[in-house]
Amino acid sequence: MGLKAGPARSRARRGGAWACGCSSGSSSSGPPAYCAARTNLENSIKSLTSLSTASGVSGLKSAVSKVSADATTLVNEAKGDFPSQTSAISSSVSALKTSVAGLSSNPTAAQISTITKDAGSVVSSVQTFMTASSSKCG
C-alpha cells in the first residue's frame, strides 16, 4: 500500500502528522475513511438492483432510502478528494429519490422507466467514483 500513496502522504509519514497536506478524509495510517462508505454504498446499490417485483413499491422506497443515506455519507467523506465524482453521485441519487417519492402503489410504465433510467445513472456515477478512488481504497 505504501507504493500507492501520493506525494503528500509520503511526506507526511517522513515529516510527521503536522506535515500532512491530505484532505480530512485521508490519513497516513491506512485507507481513507470514505473507503468503508464506498463499500457500504456499493452494497446498498446491489440490494437495490436485486429487488424483485415482490418487494413492491415500499421495498423500492426502502432500498432507495438506504442508497441515499450511504451516498450522503460517502459524499460528505470524499468530496474533498473527488469533488466532481461526488457531485455526480449526489445529483443522480437526488433524481432517483424524486422519482421514487412520486410513486403510487401501482406505478405506471412511464414511472418505472424513469426509475430504471435514474437507477442506471446512480450505478454509473458510483462506478465512476469507484474507478477514480480505486488506488486509494484498493
In the CATH hierarchy, the architecture of the largest domain is: Up-down Bundle
- Fraction of residues in β-strands: under 5%
- The N- and C-terminal alpha carbons lie at a distance of 8 Å
Principal-axes shape call: elongated
Give the rounded overall mean pLDDT.
Answer: 82
Overall helicity: 55-70%
Number of helices: 5
Largest sheet: none
Q: Which stretches are poorly predicted, pLDDT < 50 over at least 5 residues?
A: 1-27
Secondary-structure element order, N to C:
HHHHH
Oligomer: single chain
Number of domains: 2
Query: Cα-atom Rg, whole angstroms?
Result: 18 Å
Number of strand segments: 0
Structure, explained:
By secondary structure, the protein is mainly alpha-helical. It has two domains: 1-30, no CATH class; 31-137, Up-down Bundle (Four Helix Bundle (Hemerythrin (Met), subunit A)). It contains five helices and no strands. It has helices at residues 7-15, 34-49, 56-78, 83-101, 109-137. The longest helix is centred in the C-terminal third of the chain and has 29 residues, at 109-137. The model is unreliable at 1-27 (pLDDT under 50).
